[in-house]
Amino acid sequence: xxxxxxxxxxxxxxxxxxxxxxxxxxxxxxxxxxxxxxxxxxxxxxxxxxxxxxxxxxxxxxxxxxxxxxxxxxxxxxxxxxxxxxxxxxxxxxxxxxxxxxxxxxxxxxxxxxxxxxxxxxxxxxxxxxxxxxxxxxxxxxxxxxxxxxxxxxxxxxxxxxxxxxxxxxxxxxxxxxxxxxxxxxxxxxxxxxxxxx
Length: 198
Prior knowledge:
This protein is of the alpha+beta class. It has helices spanning 15-23, 85-96, 101-108, 112-124, 126-140, 153-171, 180-187; strands at residues 8-11, 36-41, 45-48, 53-56, 59-63, 69-74.
C-alpha cells in the first residue's frame, strides 16, 4: 500500500512568525497561488543539531483555493533527514575540501554509514545541484560572480550553493541571517538530498 503525504513548503525558522503569517493569510499555496490557512499539525519529529536535540512538530496548512494540504517545514530542516541542514552542509563542505567519510563522521559524531549516505546522494546529483545554484546565483546577484573552477564536480556543487547564498545576501542582506545550507534547504523546498529534486 502506498502512503500519500502532503507536499512540503519551506518556511522561516520562527514558529510564532509563521503562525502569525498563516493566520493573516500571508502564506501562498505553491501549487495554485491561493491562501494557506492552518490545518492541524504533522507528527512530532526529533532532529539532531551539531550537539543537541531539536523537537519539532511542523504546522500543516490547507489552501482555500485548490484544497491542497502542505506541511510547513522550517528552513533548517531537510525532508526525511534526522540531522539539520547545517550539520549535513558541514559534512558536504568538508568532503568538498578533501575529507573522507570516516573523518567527517568523527568530527560530527555521526555513524559513518549515515555520512556516506549524504555524500553519495549529493555526489549523484552534484551536476544538477551545481547548475541549479549557479543559475540562482546569476539570477539573484546584483553583480554576480560565478564560483571559480573546482577540483571535483562535488566541490563545484558545494561552491555553487555557497555562491548562490552570497549572491542572495548581496541583494537581500536579511538572507545573511540564515546559513548557506539553510538557504539551500529553502531554495530546494527541503529536498536538497531528495531523489526527486531538482
